[in-house]
């Protein structure tokens, strides 16, 4: 009998890292299925192939489970014993129980002895499975002790492994806040594989001596072990190898608490660079001390200072004699009409509703207690030096950072298609704005990101005009709505080579989750800032820089190619790392709506920014912030530290599964074409040459290569689908087909694309439902085409052609009018003056372009200048800003748009523009 599971052929090796948890789950279910059939065959001759299939699956699972605590190595020896004895009926029974324990996660709550196959044991697993269904997810059982796994790295025999495991088991007490099990591995490589494939590992104990090579020949580490070799490591001391392993574990999963057990000179080891170890133990240290130290370290991440304080406050009897009748629920509990509000929300949200800043609580505006501690924990989690909570969204977070750093007339280089909050922030700050154009994706009516070459070219222009000292900040969107991600480290490095004190503001509204995945993390602002800070302090970098500078000085500094055609390196004696990131925590991690954070890695924060930052924070933050949002940010941080790696990994897995089905299904492909890396990132920006992360034969094995080298990459969790072949535009498809018919909600569309975003809450079931809906729609479009008459078919073909081939080119930023340009030799504009000039109606007029009146004025030689922001949805960025000269390309784009929502434009009146008189002396206006 042939193996019938179609998904198995897509798993080419255990090195198929991106889908390892799905491989694990699917293989256990396939094994359970095969054993059920094998038992029913009862010795039939056709069972030979099935026995071989069971053997293959057990072998595969043994490798995977070697890195998990349950089932244990002893459990697997029991499974093999049953298999080799031919006791397939009992093996079937044991595997079913094991699978139930994995599904219900009962192993997290109690010891599961697989040798106990009586009905009582099976009933317990069934009960756990039913409880899981009732709760929705086992993690929602707040009364259970949180479970984690401890990784021990030591070259132990099987018997020694059992002794160590039993020793730690004996340390556990009912009063412990957490419960844990032990995973043991024997080598350097196995330790790294374990922390990649097992998200339950939260602590690591590195003991004694261990070899480098794994007994398995796996590809999962190919991108993490570059530059290392067994030969290189064999001359290292025990301490040196342990420190190197610790450093690599920290790089892959920085949240893991690490401990070193050494048999050597513990005092000498402690004096080395062991920054990633929480503590060093001498080998004679007893297990109970290690046990309590590990639990204390886990508790330090598990704490939620403000959420705990708010829960405690809600239990206190208080007399409320201040504003907010709803505080303590008084105004609704006593109501004859509003009681259903409590029925819906529950009482706790009202008991915790207060504006008090004492009694165990804290002030968001000037935190000194639990909010301060919660923000410190957030900085640790996101790799920042400082973090600040924002309760009214990332739009406000952006304005806070800009106001804190930018003075009137400072020049800011801004990604032109960034979020509108940045444009308005420039108005409020009085910045002189120099807009940067992203590369266009005209075929899909969307923009990519700003090429590094264009940024460098702009900085060089300011350098040569003598105005580089006025350039204060570079503002870019890292991970655009469509999922385009910068090579943050490279952008910062090369820009700092031109202007060593340049401030960076990375809008990572859609990228808060990225810090909890080893592939994504290096492209985050905080990680790049930290990496560069320590790199520039090293002797090795100084040597590299001196060698580079010697060659650079031989070139002509006045030739653009000298700066643009090679990678630049900043002077370590001049460079300052000044980096800010804003996160919409609520968009990609757990938080209530409008819960956002500001993260800071700025060497000059204390000396130059702290005071102005505080004032900006006070300006934009409510004096009555919503404590529920603050508490949710605290909990969201804790969750990200404790299980962010697992949740983000699962998010990536579900997105890859969706992409894989859409890539391979002929009917789905016909109407819904998933945009690949090469569709969204032009070849010039793909140094790796990777066109798609997916290959039908080798699977998802190219993602890390692209993310390690390319100037831009696409976040695979954002699945952009071209729908031009349906003949339905994006907005109609979103509303009439997805939402109205099937209740599927999406945010982003263009004229011929729709964007499906997965997140940490997306399940395999959600993906299955979406695929089912897309199949139904594909069949509907197929039947529509088959059943249409010749005229109807002609109409459909015209619609398809229009959506695929008649898309207006995306316009670049034209220029600011000379009236708003402080220096005619450089491109920046005074957007604030233009914005407020329009407040006086006599300075503006309306011109319609649908009747040609505006075009006629342009043909007569008039510079027609926009007096407002004009923002069509989609694409959702300003096509025009105050003070910008209107170009033919912009008008053509606006005329070709078939969207109904354009902010700043009234069709019955036209575009609001400045009168020619107002432009003669705008400062007087």
From TrEMBL:
Domain of life: Bacteria
Gene source species: Vreelandella vilamensis
Keywords for this protein: Aminotransferase, Lyase, Transferase
Cofactor(s) for this UniProt protein: pyridoxal 5'-phosphate
Pfam family, one: OKR_DC_1
Residues in Orn/Lys/Arg decarboxylases family 1 pyridoxal-P attachment site domain copies: 304-528, 580-764
Lyase found in the keyword field: yes
InterPro entries registered for this protein in UniProt: LL-DAP_aminotransferase, Orn/Lys/Arg_deCO2ase_major_dom, PyrdxlP-dep_Trfase, PyrdxlP-dep_Trfase_major
Signal peptide: none
Upper lineage: Bacteria, Pseudomonadati, Pseudomonadota, Gammaproteobacteria, Oceanospirillales
Entry keyword Transferase: yes
Protein's UniProt name: Beta-eliminating lyase-related protein
GO molecular function, one term: lyase activity
